[in-house]
Amino acid sequence: MSDSWWKEAVVYQVYPSSFKDTNADGWGDIKGITSKLDYLQNLGIDILWCSPMYKSPQADMGYDISDYKAIDPIYGTNEDIDHLVSELKQRGMKLMMDLVVNHTSEEHAWFLESRSSKSNPKRSWYIWKDPKRDKDGKPQPPNNWSQILGEANSAWTYDEKTDQYYLSLFTPEQPDLNWENPDVRAAVHDVMSFWLDKGACGYRMDVINLISKDQRFPDAEPSLGPDRKYHPGGKYFINGPRMHEFLQEIKHKVLEKYGAVTVGEMPGVSDVDEIIKTVKRGTGELSMIFIFDIVDIDNVPGKVRMTLQDWSVKDLRRIVSKWQKVMIEKDGWNSVFCENHDNPRSVSRYTDDSDEYRTYGATLLALMQTTLNGTL
User: Fold this and answer.
1) CA within 20 to 30 Å of 177's CA: 95, 102, 249, 329, which one?
2) H-type alpha helices, the chain
3) Catalytic option among 60, 206, 249, 285
4) Candidates 265, 298, 339, 356; catalytic one
5) Considering the entire predicted model, what is its pTM?
């Protein structure tokens, strides 16, 4: 099999919680996925990308992981995954897992140890900082970064027991791992090898471009205005100073051994050179990344998502043409998509989902995607 077999593959995202419920508990499960493999095969699917199914308190629908090597009981068991992989193999199909390693759940054993005391060996597995103090001596966050999933809130969470803050870019329940610590990176490599050894073909890598932070942790510019206390700090952690180093390490220590396929979720990046450095054939760290220009087409620049602005077919053509040309000329590779679990349904969003035109719209989107250069 070619090292670039995935270039001709069709990838289908399964959101496990809503896909197929076989035990009537209101949650989809792994047995439900397995039961629909013939249907998926008939659609022409080669790879199933399953959103996180690991053990989790579900503060963020499984993107807050408390055990990377265990399947959450609401979805099934590790043995169910083994059976799924076996059934996929029989049909010439593969399983792609979702890798969420910018952060863990606050209930992960690593974090429980880390927050137990300043002297715990795993304290440095997460990003802890002393508080600033206001005029009354009350603790304040180390800087003014805002939370990604709630810009009115700080990206730092105070731990009263140890009188320090930990970085939690998304929610307080999702503390960020400290990738500067080589033990953290080794633990992530071990997790990746665990599922690849069980038969996974690769990973969709959640917000993987946020793993390297500017170690100065400076204040963000007051981009939301002088009346706001917290502001987006992405300048200091999106494609951070050591990101490529960390991804190269993953590539050489894990991915190359398995011939694994990867697709990186890398929000906030539009620089062509940065993207090509990540996905260039031979030297890039990842097989491909998600470029969000199409799903962001109606977002008002500089505003929160889904603020909505008008767009035209010319805008869509401009985006598609740009990235097709870039990847061909610079020897990179596209992932071709126009929706995922974070976005509205594409037929409703980009076409007309009325009874009269829904089929036409869906057909047009399918025709566009299947005729573009890249992995669908």
Assistant:
1) 95
2) 16-19, 30-35, 37-43, 78-90, 109-114, 182-197, 243-250, 256-258, 272-279, 313-330, 346-350, 358-370
3) 206
4) 265
5) 0.95
